[in-house]
Automatic annotation (TrEMBL):
The keyword Hydrolase applies. It comes from the Bacteria. Signal peptide: none annotated. Gene3D superfamilies: Isochorismatase-like (3.40.50.850). InterPro entries: Isochorismatase-like_dom, Isochorismatase-like_hydrls, Isochorismatase-like_sf. This is Nicotinamidase-related amidase. It comes from Streptomyces rapamycinicus. PANTHER family: PEROXYUREIDOACRYLATE/UREIDOACRYLATE AMIDOHYDROLASE-RELATED.
Length: 232
């Protein structure tokens, strides 16, 4: 794989603001992974079990920016992991120790294993080299799943966290990543929660204390600065 740092920048690249140097080092593709959280049809798609959340993800542009980041990751050799929340039809192994879990059981759309609801939602692309990590329990896409072991085996120490929701799963993922020793990066325009006004407050007062907060454009710009030709 050949570094592309000395490649002549395009006119489009030259027009973009230069990313922060600290982020450029943190986000080098060979040490970085992108995690999409619950960007599945039954959560953010048109037939969502949570229509208010789906609407915010669409209308804010967050879901579109997740898709753009995934495409940029594919182009620059960044490993992509898609975290999916699902449940068995019989509910075996599902968590029931919080009001949220009990409310989910009553929703008209269920995130059943093998159903359309747990497929990655459009327009997020999925490539053959992406890893899909499915969980049957809990609130976090990291705790109790394969994510940590996969990242360690791949030699990735920085995790870019995107998706939904800013109310629960995103902060859970950020805290778990930091507790496990990863550097967490949050593109604040590529996450969503309800109400929409809650997300910026949560980012400013909580996530900014433990993660590098940036934008989807800046993350993609960092990847382009130090990209290698991806091996497929």
């Amino acid at each position: 794989m050949t570094p592309r740092e000395d490649a002549t920048p395009s006119r489009e690249d030259a027009a973009r603001p230069r990313p922060r140097e600290d982020l450029v080092e943190l986000l080098r593709p060979e040490g970085c992974a992108l995690l999409t959280v619950e960007c599945q049809r039954g959560v953010v798609g048109p037939d969502s079990a949570l229509p208010e959340l789906a609407a915010v993800a669409q209308e804010s542009g967050a879901l579109g920016r997740v898709a753009q980041l995934v495409a940029a990751a594919h182009d620059t050799g960044v490993q992509v992991l898609h975290a999916v929340a699902e449940r068995r039809a019989d509910g075996r192994g599902a968590s029931r120790n919080a009001p949220l879990f009990r409310a989910v059981e009553r929703l008209p759309v269920r995130q059943l294993t093998g159903s359309a609801a747990v497929e990655i939602a459009e327009p997020v692309p999925v490539a053959a080299e992406d890893l899909v990590v499915r969980r049957l329990h809990g609130l976090s896409p990291i705790a109790g799943t394969e994510v940590d072991a996969l990242l360690r085996n791949l030699g990735r120490r920085t995790l870019v966290i995107t998706g939904v929701s800013a109310n629960v799963a995103i902060p859970a993922a950020v805290f778990d990543a930091v507790n496990l020793g990863y550097a967490a990066v949050v593109p604040e325009d590529a996450i969503a929660g309800v109400p929409a006004s809650y997300t910026p407050a949560m980012v400013r007062h909580t996530l900014a204390l433990v993660a590098a907060v940036t934008t989807a454009d800046e993350v993609a710009a960092c990847w382009r600065r130090t990209a290698v030709t991806p091996s497929r």
